[in-house]
C-alpha cells in the first residue's frame, strides 16, 4: 500500500482527532496510530516522533498487538471503558391495532410500520420475525394475531425451520372457503361456547367444531372455528362466564 500520493489536511486532522478523543483515550489512539503507521511501512523512529510516543513503548505495543490483537490497544492498568447504554425503556417497541391496521412503533425513534390486517401472511411474517429477534414479546404477538401463545411459539419455530412459504401459506384446497362462516354458524358457536363454559365442559375448538358440525350437519374445520373464536373475543370471556352466571342466579 503506497500512501505517498495521499494528501493530508492538517485542519481535518485536528478536527477528527478532537472527535476521536471524545470516545477513545489518548494513549489508545497513539497506540493505534503507531501500529497503523508501522504496518504502512514507516520507520519506528519517525513514527515515535510523529505520535509523541517512545520508540520502546511503540515496539511493546506492536508486539502485544501481534500477540493479542485489538485488546492490546487498551490500557490494562485501567478499567474497561464502556459507553453509556441507551435507556431500554425509551427504545421499547410496541404493537397495537388501529382500525383495520396493525401499527408497530419502534421506541422513541418516531419510526413505525403500518400493515393492514387483511394482509395476513405479510403481517404474520413481520410479527413472528420481530418475535424471533426479541423485539416483541410472545404475548403481544399472539394477542394481535388472535392465536394462543403456544401456537405463536409453534409458528415462530416452524418459520425458522421451513420459511414463509411452507409455514404461513396454506396450500390446501378450499382454504378460502373455510373462513366464510355465516350468521347461523356464528350463532351456534356463541351458544355452545357460552353453555359449555358455564357448565364446565370443554370449550376447545375441536370440541366445539364437533358439536357445531353435528348440530348443523355441516363440515367446518376446527382451525376455522378457532379463528372465529379469537376474532369474536370468546376466549377472553371464558373465565368470566361462570362467575357471571352465578351472579345472575343470585339476583334472579
Count of distinct strands: 3
Q: What's the story with the biggest beta sheet?
A: 3 strands, antiparallel
Mean pLDDT: 80
- Radius of gyration based on Cα positions: 32 Å
What share of residues are in beta strands? 5-15%
Q: How many discrete domains?
A: 3
Helix content: 55-70%
The helix-strand sequence is HHHHEEEHHHHHHHH
Low-confidence stretches: 79-91, 173-179
Distance between the termini: 93 Å
Strand order of the largest sheet: 1-2-3
Q: What does this molecule look like?
A:
This protein is mainly alpha-helical and 252 residues long. The chain is 57% helix and 7% strand. The chain folds into 3 domains: 64 residues, no CATH class; 80 residues, no CATH class; 77 residues, no CATH class. Strands 1-2-3 form a 3-stranded antiparallel beta sheet, covered by helices on one side. Strand 2 and strand 3 form a beta hairpin. The longest helix has 20 residues.
SSE map:
Blueprint: H1 10-21, H2 26-39, H3 44-51, H4 55-68, E1 93-98, E2 101-106, E3 112-116, H5 120-132, H6 138-145, H7 149-168, H8 175-178, H9 183-199, H10 205-216, H11 222-231, H12 240-251
Antiparallel strand pairs: 1-2, 2-3
Q: Characteristics of this structure?
A:
3 strands; 57% helix; mainly alpha; 252 residues; 3-stranded antiparallel sheet; 7% strand; 12 helices; rod-shaped; 3 domains
Task: Describe the structure concisely for a colleague.
Helix content is 57%, strand content 7%. The protein has 252 residues and is mainly alpha-helical.
Amino acid at each position: 500500500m503506497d500512501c505517498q500520493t495521499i494528501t493530508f489536511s492538517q485542519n481535518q486532522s485536528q478536527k477528527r482527532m478532537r472527535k476521536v478523543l471524545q470516545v477513545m483515550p489518548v494513549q489508545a489512539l497513539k497506540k493505534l496510530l503507531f501500529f497503523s503507521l508501522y504496518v504502512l511501512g514507516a520507520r519506528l523512529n519517525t513514527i515515535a516522533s510523529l505520535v509523541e510516543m517512545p520508540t520502546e513503548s511503540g515496539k511493546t505495543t506492536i508486539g502485544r498487538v501481534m500477540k493479542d490483537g485489538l485488546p492490546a490497544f487498551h490500557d490494562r492498568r485501567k478499567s474497561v471503558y464502556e459507553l453509556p447504554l441507551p435507556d431500554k425503556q425509551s427504545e421499547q417497541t410496541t404493537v397495537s391495532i388501529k382500525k383495520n391496521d396493525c401499527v408497530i412503533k419502534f421506541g422513541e425513534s418516531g419510526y413505525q410500520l403500518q400493515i393492514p390486517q387483511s394482509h395476513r401472511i405479510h403481517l404474520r411474517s413481520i410479527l413472528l420475525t420481530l418475535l424471533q429477534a426479541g423485539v416483541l414479546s410472545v404475548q403481544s404477538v399472539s394477542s394481535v394475531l388472535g392465536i394462543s401463545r403456544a401456537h405463536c411459539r409453534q409458528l415462530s419455530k416452524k418459520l425458522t425451520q421451513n420459511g414463509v412459504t411452507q409455514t404461513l401459506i396454506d396450500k390446501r384446497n378450499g382454504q378460502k372457503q373455510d373462513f366464510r362462516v355465516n350468521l347461523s354458524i356464528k350463532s351456534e358457536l356463541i351458544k355452545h361456547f357460552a353453555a359449555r363454559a358455564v357448565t364446565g365442559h370443554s370449550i376447545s375448538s375441536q370440541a366445539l367444531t364437533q358439536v357445531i358440525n353435528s348440530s348443523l350437519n355441516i363440515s367446518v374445520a376446527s382451525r376455522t372455528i378457532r379463528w372465529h373464536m379469537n376474532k369474536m373475543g370468546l376466549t377472553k370471556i371464558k373465565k368470566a362466564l361462570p362467575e357471571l352466571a352465578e351472579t345472575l342466579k343470585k339476583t334472579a
